[in-house]
Amino acid sequence: MTIEFSEEIPALRTTMENILAVSQPDKLRSTIADLSRQAAAPDLWDDVEHAQEVTTALSHAQNELERLTTMEERIDDLEAMVELAGEDSDESGDLLDEAENDLQAIRDDLSSLEIRTLLDGEYDERNAVVTIRSGAGGVDAADFAEILMRMYLRWAERHGYPTKVMDTSYAEEAGIKSATFEVQAPYAYGTLSVEAGTHRLVRISPFDNQGRRQTSFAAVEVIPLIESTDHIDIPESDLKVDVFRSSGPGGQSVNTTDSAVRMTHVPTGIVVSMQDEKSQIQNRAAALRVLQSRLLVLRHEEEQAKKKELAGDVKASWGDQMRSYVLQPYQMVKDLRTEFESGNPQDVFDGGIDDFINAGIRWRKNQQNEAESA
User: Fold this and answer.
1) In 317-337, which positions are buried (b, 16+ CB within 10 angstroms) versus exposed (e)?
2) What's the pLDDT score for residue 319?
């Protein structure tokens, strides 16, 4: 074994051991066994919503376990390849070249697995509900909001994560005023929560006939999806519910009945609109679930604020503007918190945001560690 591989492979194994200690594959196997028993129940599909939750959770758990076991096997295969190269001088060059490529791929995939171990927040394991709203910048901001929505949906598609658009409010000329969608994946909330904040786009406006440079803004909100065990009770007297007709781009009617629902939580002023489902009852249930999720986050933020007040002033702030997408006069996407940047905005807009997300998760963990030590 060469000196490089003799150092690298043990380092990979150490990292893998740390990941396994946090990921707890035995607990995963137990979860899979329990979910498999539930999935095999003859009356499972009597409750369609529960059946979908069980089968989705089972699929996710199986995929997680496979990622862990496959990674261990890849490290074993790499070690075997390097040992074979040392025994066969004729083939050693090709084998070592292949081993180097495998080593880099394993490093990258281990880094992604390691990121998962940093997601230890109370709601990090949940599905995510993402809301994007256009900000300052007029029609360019509405177009930018739609670009961001496509970016996140493409990111989910790259990873094979199911998504569900729950509500879209289209702008008059182009783009969207706002949109809400769900990302169904293990740790979707913990992963995407670092994307929350204000995003800025600088470009030559396609809507300006003088071809001037325009700066526009959009806000991204990420909340964990409510679960039945969370017990967020909302008295009916605290709710104001309006119904209206669903519409598509440009106000075109897509539904001939008043099935869309706008739900307002009177004490906080939080408003949720839902029009994805066909019936008013379904849209009301979906709106209530998202409202409960937002109230859950609000409660959590209030608890954190109280802890921060007791602990004193701790330096740890996200700030309003967290990322800039510059297309003119140069091409760059830069995260203003982590300093991570990319010179390929088109790939980023096509869903290539994993490096930004990973850098954000590491940055957030460092901020939390500094706050705790302070």
Assistant:
1) ebeeebbbbbbeeeeebbbbb
2) 43
